[in-house]
Known about the structure:
Elements: H1 15-30, E1 66-69, E2 79-82, E3 87-92, E4 96-101, E5 104-105, E6 113-122, H2 130-135, E7 154-158, E8 164-166, E9 177-179, E10 183-184, H3 187-196, E11 202-206
Parallel strand pairs: 2-11, 5-9, 8-10
Antiparallel strand pairs: 1-4, 2-3, 3-4, 6-7, 6-11, 7-8
Amino acid sequence: MDNPGKRRNLGGLSFAALLLALAWPAAAQAQGKAPVPPAETMDIGDEPGRVSTEEVTITEGPYARQAVFFRSNEAPGTVVIHSAERFLYVVQPNNRALRYGIGVGREGFQWSGLVQVSRKAEWPDWRPPPDMLQRQPYLPRFMAGGPGNPMGARALYLGSTVFRVHGTNQPETIGQSISSGCFRLANGDIIDLYSRVPLGTKVVVRHKATI
């Protein structure tokens, strides 16, 4: 797996990678935002017990919460998640949206679909699913909600799936492909999102980038 801090030699890029690098700015500008290349996958596991308070917010760079131009046929209030872009949008009137930087599922755990917010929870408990315990057997089988919980400060449960939009005690993973299919935000951002999204909100999950 690539190391995000490793230097890359342009001469070693494949033709496909070079085409992606050239095409990315045009794709990003079509959506009305500054071009941001897809982030690398981080090869780290969850860290139960690591404390990250509710005040943690992404304040600088492309993953900071901000209002952006966003052309969509979805009704205002709809949540649209673009996994490939690492962004979650709350649709606003007049082709605008509030955009949040997110962490997304690693390779093999990415998905797309149409769901609704079926439940909301503050400082949710955490029960790692069996497949996660197989990969990380050191994890606890249950952890009560709190600042050291990997689920973070808030959670929005997505339909009848096992997936959620939730906070994290690892804010450095925002913009990365790291989770088991859930979407994570810094605690300050998930608290803001939680206050804007009522039960029953439509959530559109898109894996592939759109141009």
